[in-house]
């Protein structure tokens, strides 16, 4: 915070002058959805929730808040997993919602690109791409409410990373309001650009701690015309990984998704979501969704998938497999995968981990991590699901809050579980977050898989751009005095 603040001014009136009174929500009941995260883990205080309508208004809000020493918490759809979009419970904060920045600025079939405001909902961007016969490939369970700015700020991944990459790879250009209120225009659609440092990458995955993203140019792709989906069942993680290698050999670039769920995960879905159909017996260790797509019109895709699965069954990698015979059956299988978050939440207090390890170490990680969690809490339900094709597996220890004498005891157990997970992950060369980010939940663990020099450089960059620590403070980096110099 600056040493000397200007005399207290009426923040609400100043914000209303910039964005209009109806777009400023003062403290009170109407703020509730914006000061709490969707899992109900974090609750903060905001002097106002403000909804600017243009990048210029965002910049003016930032300048006003900076002048008054008020922290700014950018918020998209508020679907993040780490409490990164929730204001702190003390101090002065404003939540800045991007909802009204929701225009598609332009699309290009020739350049395979789309320029959007940061508040566009992901599903709307997918639809805008489809309208010109192209694909925007980011796909995840919250796509009906999460926003492009949030996707960029968390470097979101989802179910198609294996072929198309995370938001880092899907972004060509960016527009950002810096903590000092200047608008940084990097809205280029150039595919090749070797002019110096790639500054936009610093803002991707920064979780709103370095500035507010107001616009982006995103890559589009040819639209696949055909797809085929199978659910394969295997007993051991090693067999799942052998299936992945075989699938790459058979299917090459057609392989779109390779999503796994442990049996316990599917059991939790069956227990809490009776309306989700599970059209197979729960007798295997692992369930793998394999999806392939092709831009050429060909009816051989299901045959390709069947040939892969046949070979895998013959090699003893699988115990069973189903190839979806219709779009409706494919949707049923995907629905199971998309039910993991809701069902796990219904099962108890979820201690989740967004782990990523090299594929060569994946099986060792899966075995080690389950033992490690149960050693800390024998009554934990350990479930796993993830995008294993890209090395990312979500390991969840679900606790029964009724077994703990106080919320503090529950939180302490959760922290001990996360430490135990990291003890397995770090020696295997993994990272603690593949796609959800650090936020508040993982801040204390950041240093465990990040070198001291990287930590120092991150802190220096933060201090350079945000010397007053007003841009989403208390997120990502450990709290502490600004780095000297
Ligand atoms: C059912 C479900 C399934 C999910 N599945 C996946 C998945 O498969 N893969 C995945 O990666 N994630 C997944 N998520 C997590 C979440 O949807 C993503 O992290 C998403 O990218 C967050 O977008 P948001 O707009 O909701 O961001 P928010 O939650 O609002 O914010 C997230 C972070 O971004 C910052 N931020 C938001 N907008 C801006 C902006 N314009 N400028 C600067 N900073 C900003 C916030 O301050 C915060 O730090 C899932 C969530 C749910 C609920």
Brief account:
By secondary structure, this protein is of the alpha+beta class. It has 16 helices and 18 strands. Helix 1 (11-19) runs antiparallel to helix 3 and helix 14 (362-376) runs antiparallel to helix 15.
The description of the largest β-sheet is: 7 strands, antiparallel
Beta strand count: 18
Number of DSSP helices? 16
Strand content: 15-25%
Supply the helix-strand structural class.
alpha+beta
The parts where pLDDT drops under 50 for at least 5 residues are 1-8, 481-485
User: Which ions, cofactors or small ligands are bound in this entry?
Assistant: flavin-adenine dinucleotide
* Alpha-carbon Rg, integer: 23 Å
Spatial arrangement of strands, main beta sheet: 15-12-14-13-17-18-16
Please report the distance between the alpha carbons of the first and last residues.
Answer: 16 Å
What global shape is seen?
globular
Helix content: 25-40%
Write down the overall mean pLDDT: 94
Descriptive overview:
The structure is a single chain. Strand 8 (171-177) and strand 9 form a beta hairpin. The protein has 16 helices and 18 strands. It has helices spanning 11-19, 32-35, 55-68, 122-131, 148-153, 161-164, 167-170, 200-203, 237-251, 263-272, 301-314, 327-337, 340-347, 362-376, 407-425, 452-465, and strands spanning 24-25, 48-50, 71-75, 93-97, 104-108, 113-117, 134-135, 171-177, 183-186, 212-219, 221-222, 226-234, 255-262, 286-294, 320-323, 349-356, 381-387, 392-399. Residues 1-8 and 481-485 have low confidence and may be disordered. It is α+β, with helices and mostly antiparallel strands and 485 residues long. 33% of the residues lie in helices and 21% in strands. The strands form four sheets. A seven-stranded antiparallel beta sheet has the order 15-12-14-13-17-18-16, sandwiched between helices. A five-stranded antiparallel beta sheet has the order 5-6-10-8-9. Helix 10 packs across helix 13 (340-347). Flavin-adenine dinucleotide is lined by residues 73-81, 84-85, 98, 118, 140-142, 146-147, 149-151, 153-154, 156-158, 207-208, 212-213, 341, 435-436, 472, 475.
């Amino acid at each position: 915070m600056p040493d000397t603040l200007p005399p207290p001014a009426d923040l609400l009136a100043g914000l209303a002058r910039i964005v209009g009174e109806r777009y400023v929500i003062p403290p009170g009941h109407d703020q509730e959805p914006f000061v709490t995260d969707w899992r109900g883990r974090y609750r903060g205080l905001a002097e106002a929730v403000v909804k600017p309508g243009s990048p210029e208004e965002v910049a003016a809000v930032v300048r006003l808040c900076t002048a008054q020493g008020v922290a700014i918490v950018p918020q998209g759809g508020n679907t993040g997993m780490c409490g990164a979009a929730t204001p702190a419970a003390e101090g002065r904060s404003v939540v800045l919602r991007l909802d009204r920045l929701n225009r598609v600025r332009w699309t290009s079939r020739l350049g395979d690109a789309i320029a959007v405001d940061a508040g566009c909902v992901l599903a709307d961007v997918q639809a805008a791409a489809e309208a010109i016969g192209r694909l925007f490939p980011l796909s995840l369970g919250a796509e009906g409410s999460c926003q492009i700015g949030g996707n960029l700020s968390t470097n979101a991944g989802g179910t198609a990373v294996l072929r198309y990459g995370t938001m880092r790879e899907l972004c060509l250009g960016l527009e950002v309001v810096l903590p000092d209120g200047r608008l940084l225009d990097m809205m280029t659609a150039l595919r090749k650009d070797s002019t110096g440092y790639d500054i936009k990458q610093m803002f991707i995955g920064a979780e709103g701690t370095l500035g507010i993203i107001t616009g982006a140019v995103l890559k589009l792709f040819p639209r696949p015309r055909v797809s085929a989906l199978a659910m394969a069942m295997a007993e051991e993680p090693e067999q799942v990984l052998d299936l992945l290698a075989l699938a790459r050999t058979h299917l090459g670039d057609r392989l779109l998704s390779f999503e796994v769920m442990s049996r316990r995960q599917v059991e939790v879905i069956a227990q809490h979501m009776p309306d989700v159909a599970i059209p197979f017996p729960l007798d295997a260790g692992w369930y793998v969704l394999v999806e392939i797509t092709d831009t050429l019109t060909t009816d051989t895709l299901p045959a390709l998938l069947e040939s892969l699965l046949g070979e895998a069954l013959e090699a003893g990698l699988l115990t069973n497999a189903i190839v979806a015979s219709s779009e409706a059956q494919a949707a049923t299988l995907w629905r199971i995968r998309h039910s993991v978050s809701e069902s796990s939440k219904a099962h108890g207090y979820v201690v989740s981990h967004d782990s990523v390890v090299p594929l060569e170490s994946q099986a060792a990680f899966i075995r080690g991590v389950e033992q490690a969690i149960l050693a800390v809490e024998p009554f934990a339900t350990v479930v796993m699901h993830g995008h294993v094709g890209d090395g990312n597996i979500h390991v969840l220890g679900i606790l029964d809050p009724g077994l703990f004498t106080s919320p503090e005891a529950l939180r302490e157990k959760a922290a001990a579980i996360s430490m135990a997970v990291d003890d397995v992950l770090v020696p295997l060369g993994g990272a603690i977050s593949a796609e959800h980010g650090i936020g508040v939940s993982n801040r204390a663990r950041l240093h465990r898989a990040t070198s001291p020099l990287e930590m120092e450089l991150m802190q220096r960059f933060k201090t350079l751009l945000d010397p007053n620590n007003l841009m989403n403070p208390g997120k990502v980096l450990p709290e502490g005095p600004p780095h000297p110099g």
